[in-house]
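Treating backbone geometry as a discrete language has practical consequences that deserve illustration. The amino acid sequence and the backbone structure tokens for this protein are reproduced below.
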Amino acid sequence: MIAYDATSGGTALGTITFSHINNGNILYAGVGIESSVDNVTSVTYNGIAMTRISNISNIINNEQTYLYQLTEPATGTNNVVVSLNAGSIARAVSASYSDTTQGGQPNVVGSVALGTVTAGTLTLTTIANNCWMVSCSHGDAGAFDPSTNVTGRGTQTQVVLGDSNGPISPAGAFSQVWTRGVAANLNIVQAGF
């Protein structure tokens, strides 16, 4: 049965480096940068490249949002490194999980960029029974809060990573909602695993 393991995060102007203590078998990193272009060149854990599985550009507020994944990451304390090809403010949050199926990951991915809103929803249809859903919210001028079907796992000012905190059964359409008290622009990237 899938279980949440640990969360870490960091913020920097340019390349971000932060340690993550992993005891799981899958690792996600949600990344947000303030840029009108895609400046992320790589995300690694323990020197191993993570795979970009989803990204979205919000042209309204010049922000880029990404979700990266690594199956079978090294256990123990290792660095997550987010590398950029230009100087931008970057924020990242990582979360690891144990007892996940390693084949066919992710089983579904999606993203949405929204204008000035107080709530944002992304609905994906899961393929596998009992999978979990992970999502990253990236908003301007402060973070959106986890709401319906989202348990927050970590935040770095404008970037928040969360998950379903349990299996989705039966497989099918599943929505995650992010809210905040003041309207702002919002990106959401999401995956089932």
